[in-house]
Amino acid sequence: MASERTAIECLDHEGFVEHFAVADGSLHGLDGGKAFRPDQVVIRKFARFEGVSDPDDMSIVYAIEGWDGTRGTLVDAFGVYSDPAVGMFVNAVPAVAPPPFYSPASR
After folding, report:
1. How many CA within 13 A on the CB side of residue 8?
2. pLDDT score for 74
3. Which run of H or of E encompasses 1?
4. How far apart are CA 10 and CA 104, in angstroms?
5. What angle do CA 26, 64, 105 make, to 5 degrees?
6. For the chain, is the Cβ count within 10 Å smaller at the N or the C terminus?
7. Backbone phi, then psi, for 65, in 5-degree steps?
8. What pLDDT shows up at residue 101?
9. pTM above the 0.70 mark?
């Protein structure tokens, strides 16, 4: 099973180079400083990961593209430790088509 770090590195090679965080209901680029509303982005891919030593240590990586072509990743815990603000943002992103489940091994 690939790691979260491997997935992010593979997505980086695919052009998802921005690092995103959610604050105040918007997605913010930590490197470029751009901000997006949920209706301005598309989730292109996602992958879930479990910790090697602790199954409760779960995370999810989203590959996101903004309306202007900005591409990057958003990482959140999965399950009870997830950030409610991230969940609200992701749920508010309009469904264009189901994003493919990403596996670095299938790259």
Report:
1. 16
2. 97
3. none
4. 6
5. 145
6. N
7. -125, 130
8. 56
9. yes
Instruction: Give the residue carrying structure tokens 């959610």.
Output: 22
* Cα torsion 8, 75, 80, 41: sign: negative
CB-side neighbour CA atoms (13 Å) of 54: 5
Q: How far apart are CA 38 and CA 26, in angstroms?
A: 7
What are the DSSP E strand ranges found in 7-97? 18-23, 26-29, 35-36, 41-50, 58-66, 71-77
What mean pLDDT, rounded, does the chain reach?
86
pLDDT digits (tens, 9 = 90+) for 80-106: 889 999 999 999 998 765 555 555 655
